[in-house]
């Protein structure tokens, strides 16, 4: 076994690998860029070495710098995590040449599976079902049109060297195919340095289900069941779970057998994931093999009781798998939600900045994998993931309930985040039924996400908690001033003025709201963001924050802005006119910090609604900005190559 392991990664996955390595008694080495000098993975490692500037291409993607760090630290092995160099065959070869063990598969297996066209051919030879399509890279648009028409629309355009949704476009017509080819090739070139794309048939109502495999150097290959990864947005996974609520035992066995067959054909070693697309009739087709640890591996760890990172390390050290296929047991259910620094109310655009407040939930069956801390910076240079929140239960319903409570208790301030959106998805009745495909988010949130709608009972509970917070604030202020505490108040919520009476009986706040009396018991104090209480004997958690003279209550994906005022003040406020909102319709503003890749129009040009105006690149993804209505461009305010701040004006209309 090794004595020292270098983790060639950053953030939550670097911290997660270190956790297992330390438990195994291994010394850990972190590497970091200038942007990560104070990062959590640097703080938690036994030693850390700088490898370059902030840009990943000059640091985390520099093979020579990683090998130099191994030599300087004496690390005998490297775990690549996911992303960066984790699926780079040249990296695996370079480590081998330097006498350093790569904690992952052989370079030949990485190369074979990394090229999607080669992987598809190998899968077919191994007897694995594949999606109908054209087996070669597309050379030009005219060839692509012929192929797409022969296969039949809709088709998917995919990057040959791609993954993670990058370089992928759906085309349902000739025009969409032409534009999709251009954008997919551009994204692929930027992300992978390889602009080859291919075309395959699009599967209607698809589910994305993957099989976790493990293979050692002694010919033993097993699978650990499946993960359901169909809750996606822009081909990026949002929520994953194990087991899938869709598969039956027979389909699980067939998928597992084909995944094992492919791993054997590729002469695979280490942990890997075989991804399938599954149609409504449970027909499944090979998509790709990820030759690394997956982001969503914790759900498999929960239901199997195995540590995948430990197994990867032991396999790399030459050990045999400790279990056989017939010893694998799947127990309970686990769901993972990816917590991102992004703004769901602005089409999920990335958010950057400092984490002013950060409090992760804890408790039975709850796991948080994170690489941040309160005060940490969410950088523009890397993926905007803040943490992975995983909940386990004896069955799927209990895992959903536990995840809901954990999401409500997750405190993040300073950057926009998707906690509310995750809560809304987790609470959705279709999700509860397991009735979804990869189109779920597009179907259920077609206009994006502006906040969840609570039921009448949930809304009343939230109002009661806001009123309780006001009562406790009034008690604190009255104690300072030596004054009495009023019992009669008015809640202003949306367009309603609701009388409420607030009284105290020993440790209980009595809330008379509408025609109901509710009793609240809590240890909350003004200034606490997390509000834990019992409401009529039922435990409840939400987040309450003072906003001006009002309260922001966040629960279940909803954010309620509530005023609780003395009746006279509420009546006076209701008579005040609203301030007019500024008109921003004549400006195209950058919806995120990023690089202005291109501008498709010129000053004086007429544009039609839906026409491309500009492309902004952020977090390694290209975002096309389109005209919302017909108009004429008055002037350009930025040029390609400019670094844009959020809301920076790109152009103005007449």
Sequence-ordered SSE layout with sheet pairings:
Elements: E1 4-7, H1 11-23, E2 27-33, H2 40-44, E3 47-52, H3 63-73, E4 77-79, H4 89-97, E5 101-102, H5 107-114, H6 116-125, H7 141-151, E6 155-159, E7 169-171, H8 174-192, E8 197-201, E9 207-215, E10 221-233, E11 236-242, H9 249-265, E12 270-278, E13 284-290, H10 297-304, H11 308-316, E14 333-340, E15 342-343, E16 349-350, E17 353-354, E18 357-359, E19 366-370, E20 377-378, E21 385-393, H12 396-408, E22 411-413, H13 419-427, H14 429-433, H15 440-444, H16 456-481, E23 488-493, E24 496-505, E25 508-513, E26 516-522, E27 530-535, E28 538-547, E29 550-555, E30 558-565, H17 567-574, E31 587-589, E32 594-599, E33 606-607, E34 612-618, E35 621-626, E36 631-636, E37 643-644, E38 649-653
Parallel strand pairs: 1-2, 1-4, 2-3, 4-5
Antiparallel strand pairs: 6-7, 6-8, 9-10, 9-12, 10-11, 11-14, 12-13, 14-21, 15-16, 17-20, 18-22, 19-21, 23-24, 23-30, 24-25, 25-26, 26-27, 27-28, 28-29, 29-30, 31-38, 32-34, 32-37, 33-36, 34-35, 36-38
Helix pairs in contact: 4-5, 7-8, 12-13
């Amino acid at each position: 076994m090794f004595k020292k392991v270098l983790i060639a990664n950053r953030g939550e996955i670097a911290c997660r690998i270190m956790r297992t390595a330390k438990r195994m008694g291994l010394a850990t080495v972190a590497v970091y860029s200038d942007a990560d000098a104070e990062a959590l993975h640097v703080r938690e490692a036994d030693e850390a070495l700088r490898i370059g500037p902030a840009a990943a291409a000059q640091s985390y993607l520099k093979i020579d710098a990683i090998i130099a760090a191994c030599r300087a630290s004496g690390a005998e092995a490297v775990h690549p995590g996911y992303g960066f160099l984790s699926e780079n065959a040249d990296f695996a070869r370079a480590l081998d040449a330097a006498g350093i063990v790569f904690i992952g598969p052989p370079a030949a297996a990485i190369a074979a599976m990394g090229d999607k066209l080669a992987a598809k051919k190998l899968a077919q030879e191994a007897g694995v079902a594949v999606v109908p399509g054209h087996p070669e890279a597309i050379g030009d648009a005219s060839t692509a049109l012929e192929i797409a028409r022969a296969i039949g629309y809709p088709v998917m355009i995919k990057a040959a060297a791609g993954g993670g949704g990058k370089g992928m476009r759906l085309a349902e017509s000739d025009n969409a195919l032409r534009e999709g080819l251009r954008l997919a090739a551009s994204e692929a070139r930027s992300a992978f340095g390889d602009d080859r794309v291919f075309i395959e048939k699009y599967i209607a109502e698809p589910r994305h289900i993957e099989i976790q495999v493990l293979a050692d150097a002694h010919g033993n290959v097993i699978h650990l069941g499946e993960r359901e990864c169909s809750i996606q947005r822009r081909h990026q996974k949002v929520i994953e779970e194990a087991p899938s609520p869709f598969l039956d035992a027979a389909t699980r066995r067939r998928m597992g057998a084909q995944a094992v067959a492919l791993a054997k054909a590729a002469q695979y070693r280490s942990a890997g994931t075989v991804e399938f697309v599954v149609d409504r009739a449970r027909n499944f087709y090979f998509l790709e093999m990820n030759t690394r640890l997956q982001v969503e591996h914790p759900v498999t760890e929960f239901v199997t009781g195995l540590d995948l990172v430990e197994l990867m390390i032991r396999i790399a050290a030459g050990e045999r798998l400790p279990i056989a296929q017939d010893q694998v047991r799947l127990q309970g259910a686990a769901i993972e939600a990816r917590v991102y620094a992004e703004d769901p109310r602005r089409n999920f655009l990335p958010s950057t900045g400092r984490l002013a407040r950060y409090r992760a939930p804890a408790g039975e069956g709850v796991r948080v994998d994170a690489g941040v801390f309160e005060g940490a910076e969410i950088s523009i240079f890397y993926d905007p993931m803040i943490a992975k929140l995983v909940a386990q239960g004896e069955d799927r319903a209990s895992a959903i309930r536990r995840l809901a409570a954990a999401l409500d208790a997750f405190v993040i301030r300073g950057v926009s985040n998707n906690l509310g959106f995750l809560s809304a998805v987790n609470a959705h009745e279709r999700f509860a039924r397991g009735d979804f495909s990869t189109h779920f988010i597009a179907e259920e949130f077609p206009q994006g996400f502006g906040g969840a709608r609570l039921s009448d009972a949930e809304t009343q509970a939230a109002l009661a908690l806001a009123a309780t917070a006001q009562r406790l604030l009034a008690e604190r202020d009255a104690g300072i001033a030596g004054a009495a505490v009023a019992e009669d108040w008015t809640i202003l919520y949306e367009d309603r003025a609701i009388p409420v009476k607030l009284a105290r009986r020993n440790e209980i706040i009595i809330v008379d709201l509408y025609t109901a009396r509710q009793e609240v018991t809590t240890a909350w104090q003004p200034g606490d963001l997390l509000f834990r209480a019992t409401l009529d004997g039922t435990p409840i958690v939400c987040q309450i924050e003072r906003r001006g003279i009002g309260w922001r209550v966040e629960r279940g994906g909803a954010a309620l802005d509530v005023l609780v005022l003395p009746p006279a003040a509420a009546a006076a406020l209701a008579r005040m006119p609203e301030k007019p909102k500024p008109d921003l319709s004549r400006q195209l503003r950058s919806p995120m910090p990023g690089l202005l890749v291109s501008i498709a129009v010129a000053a004086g040009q007429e544009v039609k609604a839906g026409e491309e105006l500009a492309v902004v690149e952020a977090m390694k993804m290209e975002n096309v900005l389109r005209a919302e209505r017909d108009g004429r461009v008055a002037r350009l305010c930025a040029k390609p190559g400019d670094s844009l701040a959020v809301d920076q004006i790109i152009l103005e209309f007449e």
